[in-house]
């Protein structure tokens, strides 16, 4: 069976990004002119997903508005001779069917996924964190597509992982597993350790914000008590799932930007702006001048 549905949790409080996130969802922070969540949705669509459930919450209306039509804006743009921009604004989110569900209390990522049970039903499904941009190298498939290709062969839950420097392991969920004898990039998961200290970390492989699950994850979530911070942790449920059935980790070909982290947001913004032809050349020159400590021309 093909994976058709995806869940995008986007209901978190974004406390690491206050005060910006007091009235604005962190998933709507722009990378130059495109919100993070639009990158995530495009990755899902380019990976073949047809149906997306976005988990939102209080103060997240900007998300629904962004993927809705805005006739006043389109009318204004057309009348100002910007028909092409009007089309672009209208087409946002047209590539997949989008549904929404609200998480009333921010009880953690596991709780957010649990809310998708009825919508997903008895099918395998993907999860894409709404605050995470995956950046594959040129010529590589979109991040989620890499996981789905593997899922179609092995038919088991898979989590994407990437290597991180040892001193960073305390920021992530870290994987302990047995390498596959035929594929050095694949591990059979034994357990996930949430934010271990470097000496305690079983590896340097960190979970990357993209998953494919069999529907059995919902039973595992139902048995998961509240853990760290009173939240239902997805990693706890995945540890249970790994006891019940095989779960794999794929060390994939892609970089991950965790936008909830201010430094990673800044890096992502600068990198993406440098790649664009409209902003790249002048920004590169500007950064070079800044780094050289030269005098700044007055604007
Ligand atoms: P994070 O743990 O990074 O988000 O969750 P957070 O809780 O908003 O972050 P801080 O620590 O307060 O800054 C990863 C993804 O899961 C969603 C978030 O919106 C984010 O996209 N999430 C998290 C939920 O949907 N519900 C939750 O209860 C928690």
Chain-wise SSE layout:
Layout: E1 5-9, E2 30-31, E3 34-35, H1 36-46, E4 51-56, H2 61-66, H3 71-79, H4 83-91, E5 97-102, H5 109-114, H6 117-120, E6 125-128, E7 132-135, H7 143-154, E8 157-163, E9 173-179, E10 186-194, E11 205-213, H8 216-222, H9 234-244, E12 247-251, E13 255-258, H10 262-275, H11 280-291
Parallel strand pairs: 1-4, 1-6, 4-5, 8-12
Antiparallel strand pairs: 2-3, 6-11, 7-13, 8-11, 9-10, 10-12
The protein binds uridine 5'-triphosphate (UTP).
CATH architecture of the largest domain: Alpha-Beta Complex
CATH topology of the largest domain: Spore Coat Polysaccharide Biosynthesis Protein SpsA, Chain A
Main β-sheet description: 9 strands, mixed
Distance between the termini: 57 Å
The radius of gyration over CA amounts to 20 Å
- Give the ordered list of helices and strands: EEEHEHHHEHHEEHEEEEHHEEHH
- Proportion of residues in helical segments: 25-40%
Q: Roughly what fraction of the amino acids lie in strands?
A: 15-25%
Query: What are the low-pLDDT stretches, counting only 5+ consecutive residues below 50?
Result: none
Average per-residue pLDDT, rounded, comes to 93
| CATH homology group of the largest domain | Spore Coat Polysaccharide Biosynthesis Protein SpsA, Chain A
What hetero molecules are in the model? uridine 5'-triphosphate
Number of strands: 13
* Shape designation: globular
Helix-strand makeup class: alpha/beta
Number of helices: 11
Please report the first level of CATH classification, the CATH class of the largest domain. Answer: Alpha Beta
Count of structural domains: 2
Strand order of the largest sheet: 5-4-1-6-11-8-12-10-9
């Amino acid at each position: 069976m093909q994976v058709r549905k995806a869940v995008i949790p986007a209901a978190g409080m974004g406390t690491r990004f206050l005060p910006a996130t007091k009235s604005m969802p962190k998933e709507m922070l722009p990378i130059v002119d495109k919100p993070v969540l639009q990158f995530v949705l495009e990755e899902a669509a380019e990976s073949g997903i047809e149906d997306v459930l976005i988990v939102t919450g209080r103060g997240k209306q900007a998300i629904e508005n962004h993927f809705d039509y805005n006739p006043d804006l389109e009318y204004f743009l057309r009348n100002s001779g910007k028909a092409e921009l009007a089309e672009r604004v209208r087409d946002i989110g047209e590539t997949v069917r989008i549904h929404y569900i609200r998480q009333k209390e921010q009880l953690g990522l596991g709780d957010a996924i649990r809310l998708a049970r009825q919508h997903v039903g008895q099918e395998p499904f993907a999860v894409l964190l709404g605050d995470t941009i995956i950046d594959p190298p040129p010529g590589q498939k979109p991040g989620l597509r890499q996981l789905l290709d593997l899922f179609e062969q092995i038919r088991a839950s898979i989590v994407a992982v990437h290597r991180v420097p040892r001193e960073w392991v305390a920021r992530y969920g870290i994987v302990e597993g047995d390498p596959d004898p035929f594929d050095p990039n694949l591990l059979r998961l034994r357990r996930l350790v949430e934010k271990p200290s470097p000496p305690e970390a079983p590896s340097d492989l960190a979970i990357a914000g993209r998953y494919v699950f069999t529907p059995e994850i919902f039973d595992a979530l139902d048995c998961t008590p509240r853990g760290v911070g009173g939240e239902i942790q997805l990693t706890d449920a995945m540890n249970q799932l790994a006891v019940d059935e095989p779960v794999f980790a794929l060390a994939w070909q892609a970089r991950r930007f965790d936008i909830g982290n201010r430094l990673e947001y800044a890096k992502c913004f600068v990198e993406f702006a440098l790649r664009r032809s409209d902003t790249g050349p002048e920004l590169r020159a500007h950064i070079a001048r800044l780094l050289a400590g030269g005098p700044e021309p007055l604007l």
